[in-house]
């Protein structure tokens, strides 16, 4: 069994699915309510998985592999940027943390879409709270590591030396 782009696409789909499943587990069984940045990161994991799933199904030739890898890189860089922002917010001294904002339901029903989307992308004081750690790293840290690994897998999937 040799490493092929399809195996890498399947790996990316499985990883994203597992990450999303764990996020939903912590939300519904551990009671950890996601902040706006957490929800945004979840959306980028979904987008990454969708691109990988489409590539897995279509099994593109070399140019298609470049396109698939490029799209996955865009989603992983965007998701990693959001995760990095949350890690940065969590590292701020308490007096520099931005104020907590309203709930997402309130924002999207009462604020203009642009302002609600901006808050979703930039986060608020809720995003600076550390409520879960593993080996000393918060969930956004692990999310950032995952986006980096998924981006690296996307790059490897486009290497010309891999057999289709």
TrEMBL record:
Matching Pfam families: DsbB
Compartment list: Cell inner membrane; Cell membrane
Recorded topology in the membrane: Multi-pass membrane protein
Membrane found in the keyword field: yes
Entry's transmembrane regions: 7-27, 39-59, 66-84, 142-162
Residue pairs linked by disulfide bridges in the UniProt entry: 35-38
Periplasmic side: 26-43
Residues in the Cytoplasmic compartment per record: 1-8, 61-66, 161-164
Origin superkingdom: Bacteria
Chief localization: membrane
Entry keyword set: Cell inner membrane, Cell membrane, Chaperone, Disulfide bond, Electron transport, Membrane, Oxidoreductase, Redox-active center, Transmembrane, Transmembrane helix, Transport
HAMAP family named in the record: DsbB
Biological role stated in the UniProt entry: Required for disulfide bond formation in some periplasmic proteins. Acts by oxidizing the DsbA protein.
Family affiliation: Belongs to the DsbB family.
Protein name: Disulfide bond formation protein B
